[in-house]
Amino acid sequence: MLYLPEEDFLNISKGVVLRKNQIVHISDEGLYTMTDGAVFQGRKRNLSQHKQIRKELGLNTQDLSDVSEDSSLQLFDNCSFLNDMPLAFCIIELVFDANGHGVDFVFRYCNDEMAVVEGVPVSEMLNRSFYEVFENGDKKWLVTYADVALNGNKHILHDYSPEIDKTLTIYCFQPAPGYCACVLIPS
Fold first, then answer.
1. Out of 86, 134, 154, 183, which could bridge 171 as a Cys pair, Cβ 3.0 to 4.6 Å?
2. Which of the four pLDDT bands, split at 50, 70 and 90, describes residue 67?
3. Which long-range contacts (C-beta less than 8 Å, at least 24 apart) are formed by 10-18?
4. How does strand 179-186 pair with strand 166-173?
5. Sign of the dihedral through C-alpha 122, 95, 15, 47
6. Position 142 pLDDT exceeds 80
7. Which one, of 116, 138, 131, lies nearest residue 184 by Cα?
């Protein structure tokens, strides 16, 4: 079982734990903005507590509109040339529970061939949870994807995917911390 270091996460409110390196801004009102643009409301702390957390994380104190785009956001902009690649390619972001265990992943980029391999339109995958797209999805992939996203390890998986009734070879690598890129080749 994969355990993640507790110091890599920040509990911002009951039931909401964020990976510290994915936070790009914390407002004085306690709004936490993530690399993917998601915003979470933190505990109702006073101004000095939010400023202290910003300082501890090394975040810029200027207004978010003045902050340059995070490299992981730019990553998705640079993927457009892969839209017509004849191999299925996606970038997923891992979702962790309060204990730091990978519990799901979200499709952040899918090229057109992903729709062919997965049998689901890209519009129904993009920015959606794997288990939202495939309600009975197998959790066997999570440990490997989490290892890639967190540790930068590369993996080659060869296994049957019951969700799509195909055997796949999946080449996994880390395009940015917290993300796993996958090239899927059906057998």
1. 183
2. very low
3. 10/53, 10/57, 11/98, 12/40, 12/41, 12/42, 12/43, 13/40, 13/41, 13/42, 13/43, 15/98, 16/40, 16/42, 17/96, 17/97, 17/98, 17/100
4. antiparallel
5. negative
6. yes
7. 116
